[in-house]
Amino acid sequence: MADNQTVQAYIDAWTHSIESISELVAPLPEGQWNHATECPGWSVRDVVSHVIAIELELLGDPRPIHTLPRDLRHVTSEFTRYCEVPVDKRRCHTAPEMTGELEYTVIRRSRALRNAKQQPEDEVRWPAGPFSRQMPYHEVLRRRAFDVWVHEQDLRRALGQPGHLGSPGALVARDLLIQALPKVVAKLAGAPAGSTVVVDVHGAVEFIRTVRVDDSGRGSVDETVPLAPAVQLTTDWETYARLACGRIRPETAPVKVEGDEQLARRILENFSVTP
């Protein structure tokens, strides 16, 4: 059961990341808003547009009515179409228009979070297009803290301004991505029953976790390390996050593999857990 302290921690992580985005893009000249990011088809402007759009939807603002061009190759599903509409709508916006809207959105959303009456376990709407559903208030806040940190890192890499790899948002991302490991290893990669897979991550955020696949094929994760795992994957935190968020392909990622190479390849090919 989540409590109010957990809720506040997620709000603090979200605040740190979204205010960092605002500070990062505020001085950008017009041309830098067009720099490509690792999000397929999206520029710096597009990533900021997406962040604004989701926060506005959480505030209850109506979604824009807009017809997408037919030549957007990165729009491949109903979910990507849902995300693209408010992004494409803002592609003609100037740098001052973008920074102004972002700053005002942060003010409104921060005020709404301060005044919120929801309890941690209250069911609220998670806006995700075809995947929209009701979920606990604390989980919505956790996912926003995660998403905004991931997009802050997208912007930092695109603009050559690294930082905040160990921020509060990074710790939220760590926990959420670790939670996804059993599904990656046991279900998506099909690790055999009885096998163990160790993930060793170093850098700004450090952890070692073991995924264990039981006799029924179900995966679980813990902090104990077996003597002879089927696979051990070792990498740095930034690489881990980029892989898990689909920002880079496994074949280009600096990951040290020990053990069953075929199983390791299947795990890495299925490592991305974000839509």
Give a verbal description of the structure.
The protein is α+β, with helices and mostly antiparallel strands and 275 residues long. The chain has helices at 4-25, 44-58, 78-89, 95-115, 137-159, 168-179, 181-188, 237-244, 261-269, and strands at 123-126, 133-136, 196-202, 207-213, 219-222, 231-236, 256-259. The strands form two sheets. A five-stranded mixed beta sheet has the order 5-4-3-6-7. Strands 1-2 form a two-stranded antiparallel ribbon. It is globular, with a radius of gyration of 19 Å. The chain starts with a helix and ends in a 6-residue tail after the last helix.
Write the layout of secondary structure elements.
Elements: H1 4-25, H2 44-58, H3 78-89, H4 95-115, E1 123-126, E2 133-136, H5 137-159, H6 168-179, H7 181-188, E3 196-202, E4 207-213, E5 219-222, E6 231-236, H8 237-244, E7 256-259, H9 261-269
Parallel strand pairs: 3-6
Antiparallel strand pairs: 1-2, 3-4, 4-5, 6-7
- SS content category: alpha+beta
Question: Kindly state the mean pLDDT as a whole number?
Answer: 96
**CATH fold naming of the largest domain:** Four Helix Bundle (Hemerythrin (Met), subunit A)
N-to-C CA distance: 26 Å
Total helical segments: 9
In terms of DSSP E residues, the strand content is 5-15%
Which sheet architecture does the biggest sheet show? 5 strands, mixed
CATH architecture of the largest domain: Up-down Bundle
Indicate the low-confidence ranges by residue numbers. none
Determine the CATH superfamily of the largest domain.
Answer: dinb family like domain
Chain oligomer state: single chain
Q: Helical residue percent?
A: 40-55%
Counted up, domains total 2
- Which strands sit side by side, in order, in the main sheet? 5-4-3-6-7
The SSE string, one letter per element, is HHHHEEHHHEEEEHEH
Total beta-strand segments: 7
Rg, Å, rounded = 19 Å
Shape category? globular
